[in-house]
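Forgive a beginner's question, but would it be possible to get a protein, spelled out as residues, together with the matching structure tokens, please?
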Amino acid sequence: MRTLIQKIHVEEQYSFACRHYRTPDFETSWHKHEECELIVITEGHGTAMIGDFVGEYKTGDIYFIASDIPHSFRKRHHKMIGDAVVAHFKKDVFGESFFLLPEIKHVFTFLNKNDAIQLSNKLKKEVTALLLSMETAKGFDRINLLLQALQKMSSSNSFARLTQDFSSPDNNINPAIEKIIDYSFKHYLEPITLEQVAAIAEMSIPTFCRFFKKNIKKTYFNFLQDLRVSHACKLLTTTNKTVMDCCYESGYNSWAHFSKQFKQIKQITPSMYRREFVDKSKQ
């Protein structure tokens, strides 16, 4: 068995960690830690896996990930630079009783939800500025910046909830899960069968299906569907390819199947998704 838990190093003069991670330090496997994480992507794009969420990340995106939610950020291409500023802090970073003060009790409630969120609109801009300043701040200024970020996030609804009440099965994970994820990211645009991935995990198909759902909180084919739809979204927003071409270049061989799965995940059709993206980019 291999541990999933990542140990976060905090310098003696600080109560929490806030530092810059750049390739190759940006790359991490599927992992978790007891610290909450606030991360802004400052360069690169790819696929974010956070709890049971799978989706695209890009430069400028900012996420808050609660304690003990497993996650990873995988670059689109191995030669791409990945870069982020990340703050790691424990839920009781300022002492167990501090967040029980009536003036900031809402922050305590926010930190004790097992959720991961992606910030948007004004909240995204404000918290990004605070996090970037936090990296070089010292003394009281550093603490003040973190408190401001927590106050803004806990009193706003300008975010998308990516995963909710997520609970990890245990502190350790069979190394097969990382092998399966790696294989899936390399081959999700190709046909994949349960026989193939079960063989990689060295399990029977029923055992593999139970194992995967226990760790990722969804079936393997739902996970594969998320990867393919995420790839389609990237094509729809960064290329001029037809919607039909985006379908077939995302691992689908049936337009009806693609359209149905896309709408299940995104709640809108592929054409509407592209149109909404174009409209937002003009604003």
